[in-house]
Amino acid sequence: MRFRLVVDGDPRRVEVEQGPEGILIRVDGAEYRGKVRRVDDGIAVRLGSKWRRVRFVGRTVITQDATHEIAISEIEDETSDSALPARSRSVRRLPIRAPMPGRVVRVATRLGLEVKRGDTLLVLEAMKMQNEIAAPQDGTVTAVRVVEGDSVIADQIVAVLEGHRPPESRAGARAGTSSS
Q1: Of the candidates 149, 133, 130, which has an alpha carbon nearest to the alpha carbon of residue 141?
Q2: Does the predicted TM-score (pTM) go above 0.85?
């Protein structure tokens, strides 16, 4: 699993892999091995030889020695297509990209939301103008990779939609033909 984690305003790229011996966590490329277990009101995490108790209250994380404000976005679960049922493999993933550099002023969607073609996903401010980034097709939002206030570059993926391909589109795409 990959995600963007902001702790007290400091953004980090995080990857987590679960294995038979515990977890492997990569934070901005640095690797940490550890174990995690559930406890009464949170979790216990062991990195190295020391266990730390961690509790989540809304957007706040409380440990034995500190309290931190957090935000998590851009969550990606790495399920391989071959592990999915045949029906799910017919789903088309469509990355939504920023058409220009700018600042995200509003995120109008969320993970799991069903959207229709033309629905506003987010509003991007560029050159003192606000531009609505719309869904190019009907589908389900499977990733939102930005939060309000983020700066983006041109062509950066800001969200991902999944929509079912119509059977005739798949056949035409394989044959290299179009239906127009």
Answers
A1: 133
A2: no
Total domain count, the chain: 2
In a domain, 169, yes or no: no
Residue 173 has pLDDT above 50, yes or no: no
**pLDDT of 88 over the 60 cut:** no
CA nearest to 135, candidates 175, 174, 104, 162: 162
Instruction: State the DSSP H helix or E strand holding residue 44, giving kind and residue range, or none if neither.
Output: strand 42-47
Amino acid 39 reads V
CA distance 120 to 152: 17
Domain residues for the domain of 53 are 2-76
Q: How far is CA 169 from CA 16, 75, 118, 134, 180, in A?
A: 36, 29, 20, 22, 11
Biggest alpha carbon distance in the chain?
A: 64
pLDDT tens-digit map of 96-107: 888 888 899 999
Is the same domain home to 13 and 45?
Answer: yes
Query: Given CA atoms 168, 170, 176, 180 in this order, what sign does their dihedral have?
Result: positive
Give the total residue count for the chain: 180
- Listed residue (2, 4, 1) closest to 104, CA to CA: 4
Higher-confidence residue: 56 or 106?
Answer: 106
